[in-house]
Amino acid sequence: MARNGDKRAKRPEHLRISRLAAADGAAPQTPGVQTPIVQTTNSAQNTDAYRAVSLKVVSGGLLTKGAVVFSSDSAQFFVAKGSAVAVYNARNGEMVQNFSAQGRRAAVVAVVAGRSARHVYTFSADARARLWDADTGAQLGEWALGARPEHAAADPARAGAFYVVLRRRQRQKRRRLAADGARRHTVSRVELGAGGAARVEELFRATGLTGLAVRADGRWVAAFAKFRVHAARVGGGACVHHAWAQGERVSALAFSGDAALAVGDWRGRIVEWHCLDDGAAGGADRAVVRRTHHWHAHRVNALAAAGALLLSGGEEGVLVLWQLRTGARDYLPRLGSDIVAIAVSPDATRYALTLRDNTVRVVRAADRALESQLQGLRVAEPTNAQTTGLAVHPATRALALGAEPGCVQLFDAAADRHVASVEVAAYNRVGAGARPHVDRVQFSADGAWMATADARAGAAALKFWRLDPQTQRYRLATRVDAPHAGRVTALAFRPRADPPQCVTTGRADAAFRVWELHAASGAWVCRHEGRFRAQHARGAAYSADGSTLAVGFGGAVTLWDARACALVAALVAGAATPRLRAVAFVGASPYVAAWSRARLDVWNMLTASL
Q1: Which residues contact residue 56 at a Cβ distance below 8 angstroms, ignoring those fewer than 6 apart?
Q2: Residue 560: which of 552, 527, 43, 569 has the closest Cα?
Q3: Which of 533, 532, 477, 542 is nearest to 504 (CA)?
Q4: 13 sits in which H/E element
Q5: Where are the alpha helices (DSSP H) in 141-248?
């Protein structure tokens, strides 16, 4: 392993100039000193450099906020993505339309299919309902609801009528007294009339309502709040509200094909509630006939009725199909992630499964085969924060970023489509064990190599992946355990290097390391190591021609001859410069940028000036 020594390596031309350059505030040069320290206090700001930045969402979006909604002819399904609604072909998963309200950024909280296959209703956070033409994306109507909707479902008994969970307005004093910060809701029947007039009829009030289900005949509507199930019998000009205690926290509900109410809880049980119509005029303490089914080891996330079957899903990543009359059940396993929502097409020929990894899978009911799949941008979980940044694959121009725990996703932002996924570190998806996190990902200039850095429970690993030209998939070639003291904080390939080289830095390490492909064995080995004044190395990057390596040590940007790993210069903005977090070269220009938490410095290497 070679360290930075006393030999004087041949420097690139622009660095030979920068060593002799005199900058404002630069330290005097001492003959014979190998490493010049260039300092500057020039902090003048050009106010004309600040310009208004306009941001526009072009792709991505979260698909897991709720179940997808099939059109009335079962040929398409609708997905709410922020303030927009995307329309997909159910057979091949191709997007055929995308629309949103002009000039408004209010999120769509519920989507309901119209009775015509071309019509779809949306309920948004701006307290408005809208009617759309799904073929053209044209808005056909708009209604003010008077309160923010949170859930909505169509009334099967009447066209243009809906059951909606609305958020009640609260006085400040009552808001402070609300238990656990729970919101107050009303379940209302909303009729969208002509001319933009909406008639809202309140059915009952409750606190902290989640979910909404309507029976096929439209006579019962149900919602749940923690340990209680709220149900109301409507019709005949009267509404009878019931509130039943479940005994365990409720997580999902749906009306089954035989008019029973199925309730899923956090213990993995599914409880059928029968005889709802018997003595419906009774009070909240009226007894119902209950039957319990139990297979799930964790909470039931989703329930849906499909004819005589009841579908359920949860953290196990298994779709369970219950034949409630006989007690028999069947399974569709190995779905790859937690099931968070289930939708059944109106003709009961397709099941749409929404998974936690931002995937929607459409399965044929006849043979349980996958018919189409919609893979969105796999957003990192809150406990698995995004740290990989955005790396661009040289060949496909796809973005590479950390996705679900232990995975790297390649995503085509222009086409809004998933390209590929690489499992960097495997883990047990069921249970509360330690999950891996991908810290860094980078590609070589020709895309033949990919390097990743991951960590799990404090143990870090550096991995090099070779692209298989036949399958176009990356396969693991070398694994290095504990490449640094602590997690890897920077990863970069050297352009135009033969053999290929890669540099890494560690969070608790005072050195960077250069890794090189060993031609004989096909494995990557450490060839060089560099240190600077016992400072921690944070951030590393190669110049466009591969001749210079920039590494951040404390508050200094150090420049190294990439071939010999010899220190050439150190650039320091001032004595009080905060610790740097990353460095980067600005294209093929002579500029190198370095930034900390609240500061960005750009250096000119030709003049050694800030």
Answers
A1: none
A2: 569
A3: 542
A4: helix 13-20
A5: 172-177
Q: Sort 185 into a burial class: Cβ within 10 Å, 0-12 / 13-18 / 19+.
A: buried
Kindly list the strands in the beta sheet with 591-595, ordered across the sheet, starting from the edge strand earlier in the chain: 582-585, 591-595, 600-604
Q: Using alpha carbons only, what angle is made at residue 146 by residues 191 and 229, rounded to the nearest 5 degrees?
A: 70
The one-character DSSP state at 7 is: -
pLDDT at 23: 32
Return the percent helix, strand and coil in the chain, to nearest 5: 5, 50, 50
Q: How far is CA 585 from CA 315, 502, 515, 599, in A?
A: 44, 16, 20, 16
* Contact of 517 with 480, CB cutoff 8 Å: no
Of 503, 489, 404, 485, nearest to 453 by C-alpha is 489
The pTM score is 0.74
* Residue 171: per-residue pLDDT: 58
Phi, psi values for residue 328, rounded to 5°: -75, 155
Amino acid at 358: N
Could you tell me if 475 and 468 are in contact, meaning their C-beta atoms sit under 8 angstroms apart? yes
Over residues 51-94, the pLDDT tens digits come to: 555 556 666 777 878 899 999 999 999 999 888 899 999 999 88
Tokens of 57: 């969402």
Joined together, the tokens standing for residue 103 give: 């000039």
DSSP conformation letters of 15-45: HHHHHH---TTPPPP-TT-SS-EEE------
What are the residues facing 89 on neighbouring strands? Answer: 76
What is the spatial distance between Cα 209 and Cα 537, in angstroms, rounded to a whole number? 51
Task: Indicate the residue type of 259.
Answer: A
Euclidean distance between the first and final Cα of the chain, in Å? 34
pLDDT less than 50: residues of the chain: 1-36, 38-50, 173, 175-180, 280-285
String of DSSP letters for 345-362 = -TTSSEEEEEETTTEEEE
Phi and psi of 405, rounded to 5°?
Answer: -50, 130
Amino acid symbol at 85: V
- 10 Å CB burial of residue 327 (0-12, 13-18, 19+) is exposed
Q: Nearest Cα to 110, choosing from 148, 59, 140, 72?
A: 148
Distance from C-alpha of 346 to C-alpha of 73, rounded to nearest angstrom: 7
- Which amino acid would we find at residue 583? V
